Each structure stands twice: as C-alpha cells, then as structure tokens.
Amino acid sequence: MMNNTPITLKFLAEKLKMSVSTVSKALNNYPTINAYTKQRVQEMARELNFTPNKSAINLKEKKSRIIGVVLPNLLDHFFTRSIDGIEQVATQNGYNVIISQSHDELAKEIQSANMLLRSRVDGLIVAISKQTQDFAHLNQFEHMGIPVVYYTRNPSFNLSCHKVLGNTFQGCYEATKFLIERGHTKIAYLGGPKMTNFTHDRFNGYIHALKDNDVPFSAKFVAYTDFDKENTIAAIKNLFADPDHTPTALVAFKEPILFDAIKYLKSSNHPNFDKIESIGFGNNAFINYLDSPPIASIEENPESVGENAIKLLLRLITKEIDMKNHQKVMVDCKLVVHG
Amino acid sequence: MMNNTPITLKFLAEKLKMSVSTVSKALNNYPTINAYTKQRVQEMARELNFTPNKSAINLKEKKSRIIGVVLPNLLDHFFTRSIDGIEQVATQNGYNVIISQSHDELAKEIQSANMLLRSRVDGLIVAISKQTQDFAHLNQFEHMGIPVVYYTRNPSFNLSCHKVLGNTFQGCYEATKFLIERGHTKIAYLGGPKMTNFTHDRFNGYIHALKDNDVPFSAKFVAYTDFDKENTIAAIKNLFADPDHTPTALVAFKEPILFDAIKYLKSSNHPNFDKIESIGFGNNAFINYLDSPPIASIEENPESVGENAIKLLLRLITKEIDMKNHQKVMVDCKLVVHG
DNA sequence: AACCCTATTTCAAACGTTTGAAATAATGGC
DNA sequence: GCCATTATTTCAAACGTTTGAAATAGGGTT
C-alpha cells in the first residue's frame, strides 16, 4: 500500500510520455496547453495523488507562504482567540501559520524569531514578551525585507512600527461611563504592570470618562498590580483602606485579575460587597460559573485584532502598502453586560 | 538599512573568493576543510547575517523538519497545554510545528491535512474531530511514508494505529476510589458523548472502583451528556430524579461540564447541596474562583500527553520504530485534591 | 510545394543547498 | 627535485519546481 517512488512532475511526465514543463503548465492551467493534454495530465495527477512539493516551489518563487506568529503563550484566551482570526484569513489566502510561544521570556522569543527567519516566513506577527526591550531579533526581519506587524503588545508607543491594537482607551471609557450611568461616583481603577503600555490608554479612558461626566477623580481610587495574586490583594487592600471612602465600583485591566480581587473582597467580608459592581477586560467564558460575577465585561474582540493584523501583514507582503509607511490599526472594544 | 541582495552561499563564496562547496562545508564543519578557512567563512557568515534557506535544504534533504498538528481547537486548555509539550520537544530536536484547528469539522480537518501534506511535513500528530469517521485524508500520509500519531481523540479502539492516550480508566478509578474512601456510597457518573471513545474507559474505571470496594452499582446513577449545557442539566435532573435516593457525589467526564452541573444543582436548591462532593477531568485553573468548587480534579497531564506523542513521532521519523509496528502509549492521570 | 501563421510542446536555466568524486596544492621522504 | 602521500578545494549533479525562449507540428494560403 505504501508508495515508494515519490510522485513528482518528472514521474508524471514519464508516465504520460511528455515533458516536465508540459505537465507543469497543464497543472497550472496555462492557456498554451492543449485542452485534451490538460485533461490527461490532471486525471493522471489525481489518480496518482500528486502533491506538489512546496519546498521546491518556495525555492523557485523565493517565498514560503508561511506566516510566523510569536506570542507570549496560548493559555491566555486573548491570544488563542486572536489566532482563530489569523488562521482563518491566512488559510483563505493560501498561507500556513507557524505559531511560537515565547512564554514571556526574551531568550525564547529570540530563539523563536531566529527559527522563523530560517524558515523564511513571508511575514511576522508578534506580541512581544514582557522582557523585550531590545528589538534586534525582530528588526532583522525588516532588514531582510520581511514585514512585521506588532499586535496587542508592542514596542513603546514612540517606536514607529506597524501595529494593531485593541482600543483599550475606548473600552475603559465605556466601562467607566456605564458604571457612572448606573449611579456610581466612587469608581476604582485597578491597573496593570506600569512598564508595559498595558495600562496607559486604559487609565486615560477611565480618567476621561470621569471628567466628561463630572465625576471627581481621586488618586486613592487608583492602584496597580500585575499577574501575581498577592500583589492584586495588596492593591485591593489599598483601594479599600479608608473605611469612610470605599469604592462602590471597580474597573480592572484584566479579567482573571479582577476575579482575584472579587474573591478577596468577598472573603474579607467587606460590608457592602453585594453592592460593588465591577468590570474587567476579557469577557472570559468562565464568568458564567462565578457566584459574584462582574456586571459586565470589556470584550476585546481578539479574533478581530488577529484578523486585522494578518490583513495588514498580507497587504505589506503584496507591497500594496509600503513597509516604510507604518500603519496603526485600532480595534474597538465592546461592553458586554452580563445576566 | 535594508539589504537587497539575499545572502546566499554563492554570495559568501564570491566575497571570500572561494567555491560554494567550500563555504557550505566550512559552515557545516566538514573535517576536510582547513581550520583557518572555516574561521574566515564563519566570521563572514556571522557578519553578513547569513541564514541558510530552509526551502533549499528541505528540497535537497527531502524532508521539511516540520511537524504538523491537527486538533479540534485551541480554546480547550487540554489542547493548548498539550501543545506546550509538543513544541518543547520539537524545538529541542530542530523541528518546527504547524498547528491547524479543525474546529471539530471534518471538512476543515481534511483541508488542514491536505495543506500539511503539501508542506511535506515529516510527521503528523492528530486529535480527530468529532465528525471524523473516514480516515482517507489521514491515511494518505502513511501511504507516502509519513508517520501519524493519534493522540487523545483517536479512531475507535479497534482500528490499529499509533496512539497516545490519557489513562482515563485509571483517572476515573482513582477519583471514584477517593470518593468512596471519603465515605460516599451513592456516587453518580456523568459521562460524555457515547459515540466517541470519550467515555468508555472512564466509565469502566468508575465501575471497577465501585466493584473493588464493594459499593453497589446503580444504573440510576449513570447519565450521559455532551458539551451542551441544556443536555447537562437534563442529565443532572435525571440523576437526582428520585428524592429518596439522590447521589452524594459526582464524577464527571469533563470539568466545564461539571461546573454547569454544580451551578444547576446550586440554583435548584438541592437540600444537601453543600454535602455533595464532585470531581471532574481537567484541573482547570478557574476552579480557584468558584464558590462551590469540586473537591478534587483529575489532572490529565496534557503536556505529558503531547510530549509522549511527539517523542513517539520522532522515533517513527527516524525509523527507530517501524511505522507498521503500531504503538500505544498511556499517560497516567493524577488526582489533585483542592483546598 | 513552398511559405507563413498559429497552436502546442520542449529546452534549458534558475532557485540555494548538499555531497561524492575529481582536481589541485602542499608536504615529506629520499 | 621527483614522486607519493595527504590535505584541501572545486566540480558537477541532484532535489522538484517554474517559465521565457526556442523548437516543432499542424494547417491554411497561395
């Protein structure tokens, strides 16, 4: 049952007693090839299950039809959902996707990048690791003429590059506004790691929503944390430190972190726990199972972010957009009210 | 800044005024090449940032150093975690991984398979879709001499193939035994879709644990569901239908389904809800946030399953194991007690 | 039947590597 | 200084495609 001679153009040509080029052109539907010849070739190809060798084609065409994706990890649903968007558009356009996780380590990111460079990817989509400060390993792609699109996590806003971002300003603005409209005036903001541009836009959205609705801002209602649970608890303790002036609502930069916060507040028997309404970024499916769920979620539309990233990348690959002409695409968030 | 002439062996050879083969051999550290020559070549290669063209190498070597992975989706943490294992071992051995989601649709799975075949992957790791009954699209790999390892979800147990599976029998046995040891005698079993081999081993584990510990089996305590919430609720209603004879514990085939079950039981104000102890397969990170969490989880060690799958595949690729000599690897589960 | 189109097929080079065989250079023995 | 080794480098073919240019075949026209 196992076929030992690999089915190549040459093999088909010999079987059909014609030249390799005729076979190639017949399969690629060249107009100069006789209709009957085409038919014969195509039939034989189907019969023998001919599959063109991509390496040979890539070598000839000087491209790989592979898109590289480097991202921190696949456990974060934001990233896995974004891959759905990337994969779909890529496949539609005949591209394969190689995904590589950096696990938020620079060393691993460099290794991934080099591996993808060797594979001669036609383009790269990156969400950088937390440790990434230097971009040599990513810049080398552009030096070789391979376009790079940064998505979500990207070099500080000053550095010019192609980027596709969730509109976290708008997302946070709408969440804050929603809480204000529900009557809250004491809305706390729980931000993420300061070093990344994780939190800057979100915070501005919060601030602007307060301002636009004449709700006074209080520095006491702002705290920062990261992905560590203990730090989140510390931040929450801080926000609720003054018993005469505790928040009645909370906006958080990421949902699992918000869950930690809620859990702590509940366990600490905060007197008005039931009244506190909260919103975080993410719209995690597990919200359904929480007893004290956030009142709403800021849906970041990761599929759409991924889709926009690959669409931009494809336009850079086809040179429809010049690589030097740096693009910035914003994808709006959507407030999803639960229950 | 952008380099236009691609850096190839030829280019290096011209710059160094030597032949292409010398350059190639110098870079590959051939013993016949003079040490000084090697040094000069390697320095120049580094300086010009030479990156060998993988397509050319693949063409020459008749292999791609790419492993294809086809799985239902990336939203299930079992699969994303298994990828961690696959990726790690693959990278260590110089292989790239192309992941393709079938979204549990046969048509998409066929498309993915064909795409990977064109890419001349050196091997394939598959978790089949729910719809897959016919295996022509996967068998063609083996016909071309490309080994295929099925993992987790695999053709019915009769069909011979290479497979790596979680030991769900043992997992379910231990969970049931654990509940018995905690004094339960009325333990319900909530199984998954019957058509897949999803549930067969699990159920046997449950049965054997009861038998080995002289706990009587009752058909009333067995119900089946799938990933649909309504069906789960219906199943739970059934299990708890007889008010004189309600289960005090529950073993479920998958965790998110168990969460649906718990949620329903809680909302239905079952009199002894607080006493009910439950265990499901998965060990989902979100358990931390549940108010009425399962007492334990059956950790399926997906990373290890992935690792075993790729390790087996690599041995098939190197022909250390003959493709015809079908292997079956079982990965034990681990009971993780919470709190 | 010589000629010219047009339709169709084939030639041949190229893509960037690898590698066994052949060629050349360097070394040492005498 | 010549020959035989050995060390080192180069040649040339191959991997499986694509594609412009060249060749050939098949008809018509006259």
From TrEMBL, chains A, B:
The keyword Transcription applies. InterPro entries: HTH_LacI (IPR000843), Lambda_DNA-bd_dom_sf (IPR010982), Peripla_BP/Lac1_sug-bd_dom (IPR001761), Peripla_BP_I (IPR028082). Residues 7-61 form the HTH lacI-type domain. One of its GO terms (molecular function) is transcription cis-regulatory region binding. Keywords: DNA-binding, Transcription, Transcription regulation. Pfam families: LacI (PF00356), Peripla_BP_1 (PF00532). This is Transcriptional regulator, LacI family. It comes from Pedobacter suwonensis. The lineage of its organism: Bacteria, Pseudomonadati, Bacteroidota, Sphingobacteriia, Sphingobacteriales.
